[in-house]
Each structure stands twice: as C-alpha cells, then as structure tokens.
C-alpha cells in the first residue's frame, strides 16, 4: 500500500486524527527494558541479541532496552488494526501524545551491530574484562554423531 503523506502535528485540523496520516509506525516494533549491563557477560548477551536480524539496543534516561523491529501480525495492509475491538491493553493505552509519529527519535545511545556493543564494552569496562577469543577447536558442531544416534 502507498505511503501516506505526512502532515505536521501542528497542522492537524479539528476532527482529524494523527493516525490517519501515519503508516502505523507504533505497530512495527516492540521494545523491552533489559538489565543495565555492568560486566562483559552482560554485553556478550547483548552481542547475541544483535546477532539476530532486526534487533537493536537503545538507552533512554539511563534505562536499556532491546528493540525488535517486527510488524504486528494484526496490522492490516490499510495500516489499521485487524483486532481493534479486542486489541491488547498496551495498544489501547498507547496514545498519539508522545507517539512515534514524528521522525525525530533521538536515543541517548543506540546500537544495532554486535561490534558496536563490543567496542562500547571495551571502552567502559576495566581493561582485561573481555575474555580472550576462543580458539576454533570444538566450537561447532554442538552435537557429535554419537550423541544423536
Ligand atoms: S499512535 Fe502515532 S505512531 Fe501509532 S499509528 Fe497513530 S500516529 Fe502512528
Ligand atoms: S494489535 Fe493492533 S494496535 Fe496493537 S500492535 Fe497490533 S495492529 Fe497495532
């Protein structure tokens, strides 16, 4: 479906609804707060998150979040909710007041590649916190033939 033409919030006329001018940005991702990392193992877990497609990590007001860019299965091609009357509470409570409509999201920190997290961890952790890179011996396969027979 064609991209909707955006209007500025301030240009909305009485009776117009912001969502009518939006491609449902808020239905195309979800994010979960995660523990604040303070050791290499925490950052290593984040590397694993970011090893997966369509993930990112961001920090806002000191809180760390895992972001997963995946569209809700109930979002229709007309950008409307397919289960509007039965949508989840989190959707019901979400309002346009501070929503994702504007393209001016600014995070305190944003990482979308494992290498970025490694570099950040190396910069903030005490020297030597990161274990050495493991040798290639016994890394794969996880199971050997006798275990699966
Ligand atoms: S709440 Fe905001 S981001 Fe979500 S569809 Fe409406 S205008 Fe778009
Ligand atoms: S249930 Fe509806 S409102 Fe909630 S994320 Fe999915 S499409 Fe959007």
Task: Show the helix and strand layout.
Elements: E1 30-34, H1 40-51, E2 55-60, E3 63-68, H2 89-93, E4 109-111, H3 114-124, H4 145-148
Antiparallel strand pairs: 1-3, 2-3, 2-4
Helix pairs in contact: 1-3
The chain binds iron/sulfur cluster (2 copies).
Would you kindly provide a brief summary of this structure?
The chain is α+β, with helices and mostly antiparallel strands.
Helix proportion: 10-25%
Main sheet record: 4 strands, antiparallel
Mean pLDDT: 90
Gyration radius from CA atoms, angstroms: 21 Å
Content of β-strand: 5-15%
List how many beta strands DSSP finds: 4
The number of helical elements comes to 4
Oligomeric status = single chain
Bound molecules: iron/sulfur cluster
Give the class from helix and strand content and strand pairing: alpha+beta
Ends: how far apart? 50 Å
Name the helix and strand elements from N-terminus to C-terminus, one letter apiece: EHEEHEHH
State the low-pLDDT regions, or none.
none
Based on the model shown, name its key terms.
single chain, 149 residues, alpha+beta, 4-stranded antiparallel β-sheet, 4 helices, binds iron/sulfur cluster
Please provide a written account of the structure.
This protein is an alpha+beta fold. The chain has four helices and four strands. It has a four-stranded antiparallel sheet with strand order 1-3-2-4. Strand 2 (55-60) and strand 3 form a beta hairpin. Helix 1 (40-51) packs antiparallel against helix 3. The longest helix has 12 residues, at 40-51. It binds iron/sulfur cluster (2 copies). The site of one iron/sulfur cluster (SF4) has 9 residues, from loops.
């Amino acid at each position: 479906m064609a991209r909707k033409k955006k209007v500025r919030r301030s240009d909305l006329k009485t009776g117009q609804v912001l969502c009518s001018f939006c491609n449902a940005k808020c239905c195309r991702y979800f994010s979960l707060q995660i523990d604040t990392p303070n050791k290499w193992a925490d950052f290593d877990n984040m590397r694993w998150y970011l090893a997966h497609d369509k993930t990112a990590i961001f920090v806002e007001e000191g809180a760390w979040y895992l972001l997963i860019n995946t569209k809700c299965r109930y979002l229709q091609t007309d950008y409307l909710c397919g289960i509007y009357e039965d949508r989840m509470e989190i959707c019901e409570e979400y309002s346009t007041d501070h929503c994702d409509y504007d393209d001016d999201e600014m995070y305190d920190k944003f990482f979308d590649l494992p290498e970025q997290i490694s570099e950040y961890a190396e910069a903030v952790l005490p020297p030597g916190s990161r274990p050495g890179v493991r040798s290639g011996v016994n890394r794969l396969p996880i199971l050997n033939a006798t275990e699966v027979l």
